[in-house]
């Protein structure tokens, strides 16, 4: 089975899961040759007993459209995560979690998967786009930010802070990075 790159973005109300909640997540499944084959997204009810981090709440106050987008059609976390696992298992390929930065997005997705479903189709692994860029650019980690990446790695997708929009944008970026590395 081919690898499928599951570009994933999360929107949260704080820096870590548990005390804070994942508000929304979106995933875009890409083939190595940049075919977007499927998407998944869900907006979630907050965790019982969790609260927004003050700095994150301040940031959300500056993003009214993204906030409104992630607070509509809310699902219980268990329902959404079970549907997500079923979606991942229904894809015709081995899912590879990809994010920018994976350390943040994977933290939330993995925690929610383990808490509400008890398994992760990704195992314990995530591919970090910034680390991949570091290797491709032969630069230090702190110098491998998006502003230092070649412009031809970027497609004209907007970064809206709506999880699915950003997952699609970052998935295209990853596929362009993959093409640059493998000559595809």
From TrEMBL:
Q: Does the keyword Nuclease apply?
A: yes
Q: Which domain of life is it from?
A: Bacteria
Keywords, A to Z, come to: Exonuclease, Hydrolase, Nuclease
- Does Ligase show up as a keyword for this record? no
Signal peptide bounds:
none
- What InterPro entries is this protein classified in? RNaseH-like_sf, RNaseH_sf
* GO MF, one annotated term: exonuclease activity
Protein's name in the database: Exonuclease
Originating species? Vitreoscilla filiformis
